[in-house]
Write a structure and sequence with these properties.
The structure is a homodimer of 272-residue chains. Chain A has helices at residues 6-19, 27-34, 38-55, 78-92, 107-110, 113-127, 143-153, 211-222; strands spanning 58-63, 69-74, 98-99, 103-104, 134-138, 157-162, 171-177, 184-190, 199-207, 226-236, 249-257, 264-268. Chain A is of the alpha/beta class and 272 residues long. Chain A has 2 domains: 6-74, Winged helix-like DNA-binding domain superfamily/Winged helix DNA-binding domain (Arc Repressor Mutant, subunit A, Orthogonal Bundle), CATH 1.10.10; 78-271, Rossmann fold, CATH 3.40.50.2020. The termini of chain A are far apart.
Chain lengths: 272, 272
Amino acid sequence: MEKMKRAERMVAITQVLMLKPNVLTPLTLFAERFGTAKSTISEDLMAVKGSLLLSGQGHLETISGASGGVRYIPGIPTEEATQFLSKLAERLSDKERILAGGFLYMTDILFDPAILRPLGLIFAGAFRDKLPDVVVTIETKGIPLALVTAEALGLPMVVIRSGNKVTEGSAVSINYVSGSSRRIQTMSLSRRALEPQRRVLVIDDFMKAGGTALGIKNLMAEFEANVVGIGVLVEDRMTAEPKLVEGYLSLLQLKELDMFTGKTSVVPVNTD
Amino acid sequence: MEKMKRAERMVAITQVLMLKPNVLTPLTLFAERFGTAKSTISEDLMAVKGSLLLSGQGHLETISGASGGVRYIPGIPTEEATQFLSKLAERLSDKERILAGGFLYMTDILFDPAILRPLGLIFAGAFRDKLPDVVVTIETKGIPLALVTAEALGLPMVVIRSGNKVTEGSAVSINYVSGSSRRIQTMSLSRRALEPQRRVLVIDDFMKAGGTALGIKNLMAEFEANVVGIGVLVEDRMTAEPKLVEGYLSLLQLKELDMFTGKTSVVPVNTD
C-alpha cells in the first residue's frame, strides 16, 4: 500500500476502531497495515483521541504493555441522551398508542435500529462500571434492546425463553407471576447458554409489577449468577405499589394511560 | 469551539457519519459545527472518502443539491466476508453442537454481537440493490440477525409472532407447516406493524424445508407486500429435496449431522 498521510491514517484508524467497539487492537497491527513505525501510530492515536474527545460521543482507551493496544468505547453525551429520551417520551405519549387492555404500543420503537442504538449507549453508560459479563433478557420484545446494550458493552447476550420450549439440552425452568397478566407462567434457560457465576446485566422493555424481573433474578440464582444491574426502558408508575424488585434503572415512566379520555403520559425519569 | 485542523475535522466527520450509518447529513451541519466554509467541508469530505475507500469497509455517498448531503454506507470487503464465513462454518462443524433430535446448537452464535455485525453487513451487501423498505423476521432466534441487517441497510425491522399472542390491535394470522416440526403452526402480525405494499426483505437463522419461509411469504401477501429477497444464515442440505421457496440466499449449508458418529459438516455456500 502506498504510504498514507497522517490525516488519512487518522481517518483509517478511527474507522477500524469504530467498526469493532470494545475490541483491543494492538498498535503493531496499524504499524504493519500502514507501513509506519509504532511511534508514528502512537502520535496518530493521540491526535485521534483528542479529536474524538471533542464530540463526547465515545472515546479511545489505550492500554500499555506487551498485551496492550487501543479500543473504542462507544458513548453518548449526557445532554444528547436527555434530549433523546425527552423526544422518545413525547412520541410514546400519543393516544394512538393505546391498545385494548390498557397497554401501550411500543413495538415500532423497540424494533427500530435508529432508536435502539442510543438506548443501548445509555444503558451501557449506566451499567459499564458494574462490570457485567453478559446481558440477559427474556423473549421477545426486549431482545433488540438487550442486543444493542450488549454490543455497546462488548458483551454476549443470553435470551431466556418463555414457556418450556427449550430444545437445547438440559434446561432450568421456573414459574413466575407476570404483573401484566397475573397468570402463572414459565421461563426456561438452557444450561449451556450461561456458564455458572457470571455477572449479569438484565435488560427488558417494560416493567409493571416487576414479576418478570423477579422471575429472571430467581432463574439467575439457579445459575449462581450475580445480577449486577436491571435496566428497563419503560416502568409503569400508574399505581404507587412498590415493585417486586429493587434497585432497577428505568429510563422512562408511564404515568397515565386513560382509555376513556385517551390521555397518555410518558416522561423521562430524570425530569420527574 | 476552537477552530480545528483539517485532520481533526476529518476524524470528527468520520465519527459523526459512522455513528449514523445510512443517514444523510447536510454539509451545512458540519460547516456550522466546525465554524468553517462549506467548501472547506467539501474538501475534507473528499479526503475522508478517499481514505475510507482504501479499507473497503464501507464508503461515503454524497448527494448534491439543496436537499443533499453525505452518508456512510457500511460494508464489508468480499475477502473478509469469505474468511469470516469459513471460520464460522468451522466453528459450527463441532460435534459438541449436536443436540437431541438432530438439531445444531447455534444460539451462542446468533446472540453474539461480534458475530452478528459482519453477518448483517454481508446480508445488507447482498440485498441493498433490491431496495427493501423493511426487514421482516419471525421470533425468536432470527431477531438479532434481522436487526443487524436492518441497521446496516438503514431500515426498520418487523417481527412476526409465533402463535396467536398478538395483543396489538387487529392482526392477520396464517397457518403453516414448519419443516423442522412437521406440525401445523400459526404465525401472526399486527396490522399496524406493517403498512401495505412494502418491499420486504425476509431474514431468518435457519431453513430446513422452507415451510416457515413459505408461511412468511403467504403472510406478506396478506399485507400486499412484495418480498424482494429471502436470506438465511444456515440452510439444511442433508436431503436433496427441493425447498418450498425459491430464490433465497443462504450463507452456510449444513451438509452432515450424524448423531451416531458425531460428524457435523457446515460449509460456506460459495466454496461448495
